[in-house]
Design goal:
94 residues; mainly alpha; 3 helices; elongated
């Protein structure tokens, strides 16, 4: 029974990821695309977690942490790019 529920949740998560990818490509503004990218990272984390429960293993926990860290850094980089126009500022030494 739990396997059926997990497979259904993976299916709904796949539909959610397809809608998010559509918003990522078609988004009317840059903030919409950044938010869609962040949601895609969250959906990916959820999918890996459900897959880990389905396989009854803890082997994917490091992958979940890595995806979370990369998603956070990507969101911060895009936000800085939108705000300032550059991600990393070069300071001139006097």
């Amino acid at each position: 029974m739990i396997e059926i529920i997990l497979m259904l949740s993976l299916g709904f998560l796949a539909l959610s990821m397809m809608a998010t990818i559509f918003r990522l490509v078609k988004g009317p503004t840059t903030p919409d695309r950044v938010q869609a990218l962040d949601i895609l990272g969250i959906n990916l984390i959820s999918g890996v977690a459900i897959f880990s429960v389905l396989l009854k293993t803890h082997a994917f926990m490091e992958v979940i942490l890595l995806i979370g860290i990369l998603s956070f850094i990507g969101t911060i980089a895009f936000a800085r790019f939108m705000e300032r126009g550059v991600v990393i500022e070069r300071r001139r030494v006097k």
